[in-house]
Amino acid sequence: IPQVLGLLVWALIADTTYHLHAAYGWVMFVSIFFWIVTVLFFVIYLLQLQLKFYVIPWPLVLMIFNAVATILYITAFVTCAAAVQPTSWRQWDYNRRAAASFFACLVMIAYGASTFFSFRAWKGLGSNAATSQVTDHA
């Protein structure tokens, strides 16, 4: 979900005159960077490359990545929402920037939920009683 929503933020801001406002440069950087890195992680897990690089603690890496993405998307959301001006000289710029702020908020929430679930996976809190019984006696 963060890939699709992040792509929407990127596309909506890119379709405005964002180069005239420095604040939108930060929003563009955050949305493009995390979209690319999230797609890379998706490909790594899709191709099961994490099994080949077993030395890397993948649950910890994902938790740190999701936490950093959440924090930076908070700043991007606040920046984008604060820079939206209802008295914009082009009405469609206002609409697209307001929509980008909304989707940036959704991406922030999605990365926050991913941080929570990756923290649980890193700590091993996702196991149930049946799997812990089997592994205890094996």
From TrEMBL:
Keywords, sorted A to Z: Cell membrane, Membrane, Transmembrane, Transmembrane helix
GO terms for MF:
structural constituent of myelin sheath
State if Membrane is listed as a keyword: yes
Q: Which Pfam families match?
A: MARVEL
Please name the InterPro entries in this protein's record. MAL (IPR013295), Marvel (IPR008253), MARVEL-CKLF_proteins (IPR050578)
Q: Which BP terms does GO give this entry? A: myelination
Instruction: Enumerate the PROSITE patterns for this protein.
Output: MARVEL (PS51225)
What membrane topology is given?
Multi-pass membrane protein
Task: Kindly list the residue ranges recorded as spanning the membrane.
Answer: 26-47, 59-84, 99-119
Q: Which GO terms describe its cellular component?
A: apical plasma membrane; myelin sheath
Q: Does the keyword Phosphoprotein apply?
A: no
* Domain MARVEL as annotated: residue spans: 1-123
- Grouped into one coarse class, the protein's main location is membrane
Taxonomic superkingdom = Eukaryota
> Which segments does the entry list as coiled coil?
none
Q: Which PANTHER family match?
A: MARVEL-CONTAINING POTENTIAL LIPID RAFT-ASSOCIATED PROTEIN, PLASMOLIPIN
Family assignment? Belongs to the MAL family.
Q: Assembly state and interactors?
A: Forms oligomers.
Q: Provide the protein name.
A: Plasmolipin
What is this protein's gene name? Pllp
